[in-house]
Amino acid sequence: MPVLKVIPQWEVQPKMSRILVSVVTPSFNQVKFLEETLRSVELQKYRPIHQIVIDGGSSDGTVELLQRWAAAEHSEGYSFEWISEPDRGHADALNKGFDRVRGDVVGWLNSDDVYFDRQVVETSVEALAAHPDVDVVHGDVAMISEDSGLQMVWCFPRFDYGRALRGYLIPQPSVFFRRSVTDRHRLDSSLRVAIDQQYWLQIGREHRFLKISRIQAGDRDHGARISQVNRKQLAETGLAMCAAFGGEERTGGLAWLHDMAWKALMRLRGLGYAIRLSRNGGVGLAFPLWLDSPGRLLRRQATMRIGHRAEMGRRPWNGESRYAGS
Q1: CATH code, domain with 104
Q2: Does a structural domain hold residue 203?
Q3: Considering the domain boundaries, does residue 49 fall inside one?
Q4: Start-to-end C-alpha separation, the chain
Q5: How far is CA 228 from CA 192, 232, 233, 297, 308, in A?
Q6: Which domain holds residue 89?
């Protein structure tokens, strides 16, 4: 009698969907957020996927969490590795992670951020497969609170190098690269702030970017994040970096008007996302998102400034996620 072999779904998908994806997560003393980050990667429907955590020698229980996560049984097609040792900062940890990458597509997800839904990796791989001339894809992000409440949706135009030289960024947790990018370019480990901005300026001169018009990640807003703690240093470093790459500060003229028009359009697009989420919720999310009230969300969407902490209402009394679809 013939023996039937059960083949995992990820093995019978088209060849382009069987590319190994590596997700690099730098970590330091963020145990309160890390498990949600890890779970948002494992919950991706895409397989195979390989997550690499580079911890800088945390002392807050992170190591114990990583030990438990490594020892646990995980879904087929998901693999995990980690190290914990002193490093020279965030950029150095990422470079160590890039050294361990085995996949042809690479994600960069910090230990306080999450992938938004379970289709993020698959969508990114498909976009790269459909555009062989593109090396980097990015999308939009939901700004979330310390306990995963939805603050607002932050939308971005496609990457444009001239706009980047004027200080306009793309959201780091939404980005996926071809491995050729991370093999060739490493982050500047001498920097303590604006490491993503420096990287976009570095790789943007040689590589083509593609915008995916969807929410790709949850960007967590909390008191210990760099944009809160070192806001002034971040702004000063960003200006100096743009100048070093050949940019000029612009406070008027056609370029300034163009940038303001894009900002307004992106704010309106984010408002559309927020209205849909407040009415319909989310399906297949990769983390337990919650909403205080539609009215509060829409007010924040219209008025909130990035880098300024939002005032959230109370979490729903039962503590359950309103939007964690299956």
Answers
A1: 3.90.550.10
A2: yes
A3: yes
A4: 38
A5: 14, 9, 10, 21, 7
A6: 14-303
Average pLDDT, integer, range 58-87: 97
Residue type present at position 276: R
Q: How confident is the model at residue 293 (pLDDT cuts 50, 70, 90)?
A: confident
The amino acid present at 14, given as its one-letter code, is P
**Can you give 184-242 as a three-state secondary structure string?**
HCCCCCCCCCCHHHHHHHHHCCCCCEEEEEEEEEEEECCCCCHHHHCHHHHHHHHHHHH
Higher pLDDT, 307 or 174: 174
Q: State the number of CA atoms in the 13 A half-sphere of 109 facing the CB.
A: 31
Contacts of residue 244, Cβ cutoff 8 Å, sequence gap at least 6: none
- DSSP-assigned letter for residue 6: P
DSSP 8-state secondary structure symbol assigned to residue 108: E
Query: How many Cβ atoms sit within 10 Å of the Cβ of residue 61?
Result: 12
Residue 253 exposed, middle or buried by CB count within 10 Å (0-12, 13-18, 19+): exposed
In a domain, 28, yes or no: yes
Which has the closest alpha carbon to 23: 105, 85, 90? 105
In a domain, residue 224? The reply is yes
Work out the mean pLDDT of the chain and round it to a whole number. Answer: 87
Q: What angle do CA 68, 189, 242 make, to 5 degrees?
A: 125
Give the chain's domain count: 1
Tell me which residue of 160, 58, 165 sits closest to 112, measured CA to CA.
Answer: 58
Crossing angle, helix 31-42 and helix 62-71, to 10 degrees? 20
Cα(311)–Cα(313) distance, rounded to whole angstroms?
Answer: 7
What pLDDT was estimated at residue 17? Answer: 47
